[in-house]
Structure formats: structure tokens, C-alpha cells
Amino acid sequence: MDLELIMTSFPKLLSATVVTLKLLSASLFFGLFLGLFFAILRLNKNRLVSGFAYGYSYLFRGTPLLVQIFIIYFGLGQIEYLRTTFLWVILKEPYWCAIIAFSLNTGAYTSEILRSAFETIKPGIIEAGRSLGLNKIFIFTKIQIPIAIKQSLPAYGNEIILMLKGTSLASTVTLMDITGVAKFIISTTFRPVEVFIIAGSIYLFITFLVHNLIKYLEKKYRYQ
Amino acid sequence: MELLSFGDNGWGDELFVATLMTIAVAITAMLIGFLFALIFTPLKLSKYKILNLIANFYTTVVRGVPELLVIYLFFFGGSGAIMYVAQIFGYYDYIEINAFLTGAISIGIISGAYSTEVFRGAIQSIDKGQFEACHVLGLRKYIYFFKVIMPQMLRLAIPNLSNVWQITLKDTSLISVTGLVEIMRQSYIAAGSTRDPLLFYSVAAVLYLMLTYLSMKLINRLEQNYSRGY
After folding, report:
1. What is the longest distance spanned by two Cα atoms in chain A?
2. Which fold has domain A3-220?
3. Per-residue pLDDT for A57 more than 70?
4. Looking at domain B21-183, what is its CATH homologous superfamily?
């Protein structure tokens, strides 16, 4: 055990934590909207619309995240036309490519979580809203969404932790997040165990915080 | 399309072999995972707090740390650790473990943590009366576990194990960082030499989709087989 290495690499890994947290929060933010959007599409009565949403979630849940990042980062740059549009400003940055891939990925999982949450809402609740004369949008935003959020909290907590682990793949497209810095230190010092312990503890600490946050929210929004 | 043909001009045969490699790594990792689950599930269910603690430590750490980090630990630290053990026994030459084993073991340890949780859940949801009945009938431990508990546990565990399998299958793509030529690595090589990353990574995505689809079909059959009588 090399204590000195631990002391010197800890601050480096800690500053890389900022990158990891930025990637995580950005992709969760976009992913939540994507997830909600596709969950609503999934519940649409039109077979074509719900089929499209199913295809999206199947595609992104059935392939590894690494493939998705590589297609977006290496693959899309190949299309000549894209290079002339404003999209290229975003797609040439590995940071944004990673966020796009992560958002699409977590969006697919979130859409499944939210869909099953919407499906477990008792029809009686919606009927009650309708018989009170509330309009569709009001029922959806004020009744269905709050219930669905409550319902899906535990599963969404797991998804946040999976996404946190997913952000480590950003290191494969040159980003220096915790894993990227850890790999750099390991390959220069050849002390994998020490670095693993610190980097692992940082990840575990974030996991611990997320876990407790979700627990707190679950308690707060429990049915009275 | 020529790029994907079989033979010297195309990458079809290389990708096919790579797909077989992915399947081989995934199955090996899953089996190693079962081995770990076989060790840690009893620890989780044990009466002794210290054994629970060990098993909880394993599952919490492995499930909370990114897969890539675990792979790096074994990739860079694996042969060092083995050489250290070998030196205790008086063997001082350089030992290198191959990429397949490194990959299968690191993914296996990860999938083992998930499998442990699945088996724990399955055993805990078996009716208590079953255990008591075995006790009353005075069944030998072997029969008690393999003939009574195991079949019931498998029925409950298979749907969740299918999730673990999906995770394991997708995690094998991360082994490409160690240089093992599986789907992801082969696509990376092909994309580099033909400068057509979009095509090859899309093919990789399709291959993974195919694997997940086919394994789902197989697992569904298995599930039906184990839920006969329910």
C-alpha cells in the first residue's frame, strides 16, 4: 500500500469528480424529459406511435452503452452533410457526444420506468378527476404525473446509480472523468489497487448520497 | 456491402468469430458469477453478522463501482497479484494471464454480485413451510438443497437472472479496452482500417441486439420449463 500515492492522487480524482457529476446531472436532466416524452408515446393508442417508442427503448436497452457512444462520437462525424450544419459544433465535442449518448440511454430506461408507473395508476383516480370536470391536461399534469413520480422513485434511484456507473464510459472518448483520471494514474504508476480504492470510494460515496436522497424523497412523498 | 462480406475482402468472418468470442466470454463470466453467487448467497443468508457483512461488502462495492474501473483493476493488477501469490510459492518468472481470463473474471465478479442478490431474493421468497417440511421429514442436506429448494429457487430466479444475463452480455463490450477481440474490439479495428466507423459500430449494435433478442427467446423457453405445474 503506497500511502503517498493515495495522498497525491486523491485531489486529482476529486477534481475529476466534477466532470463525472456534470455528465451525470446533464444526462439525467435530458434523460428525464426524453423518458417522459417516450413514456407518453408508449401509452398512445395509435400502434405506430407506441411502436416507435417501443423501438426506441428496445434499441437503447438492447445494445451496450459503449456502442452508442462510439456511434455518436465516431460514427456521426463521418456523415459529410452533418459537418456543414450547426449540429457539428455540438457533435465534434466529446463532452456533448457523451451527454447525448447518456441521455438517450437513460431516457430509454426512464421511459420504461415511467410507463410502468403510469400503468399502475388506478383507473378510478383518473375517472374521479374526469367526473369532477377537470380537463385532460390538468388530470395529466396534476394527477397522473405526481402519482407516477412517487411510484417510480425506487426504480429511478437505481437508474441514477446505473447512470453514474455509465458515465465512466466517457473516459473512452478522451474525457477525464473519475475513471479517465484513474486509468491515467494507473497506467503511469502501475499501482492499480491504490487508485481503485480511492476512485471506488468516491463512486461509492456518490452512490450512498443518491441512495439516501431517494430514501428521503420516498419518505417525504409517501401516501399519508 | 462488400466490407461485410466473408473472406479476405470483407470483415464478415472476423465479425462472426468476434461474435462467438463475445458469447464465450459472456457465458464464462456468467458461470464464474454463479460460482461467486454460490459462495456469497449462503454468507448473505447466514446467521452470523460477520459473514453477512462480508457478503454485503462484496455486493455493495461491486454494484456501486463502474464496471470499467473493475476491469482496469484486473487488467493492470491481475498478473501482478498472481505473480505475488506465485512468489510466495517460490515461482519468480513473469506470469501473464490472457485477455480472455482477465475479462471473464472481472465481468464474472460483477455478474456474481447481481446473481447473489437474485438468489438471495429467490431463496427468501420460498415458503418457510418448505424448509420446515424438509426438516420434519429428516431429508439429507444434499436432497434437501438440490431436490427441494433448488428447483423452487430457480423458478423464482430465472426472470431476474435473465436481467443479469443481459447486463453481463452488454458488459462484455467493456472488455474491448483490454484488447480481447470481441464484437466491440473487432468493430473498432475494422472502423479504424476502413475509416467507416458508422457502418461497423452500427453492425456491432445490430449484433448485440440479435444476441439479446435470441437469448430472450431461449430464456423464455427455460422459464416455461421451470414453471411447469404453476
Report:
1. 69
2. MetI-like fold (1.10.3720)
3. yes
4. MetI-like (1.10.3720.10)
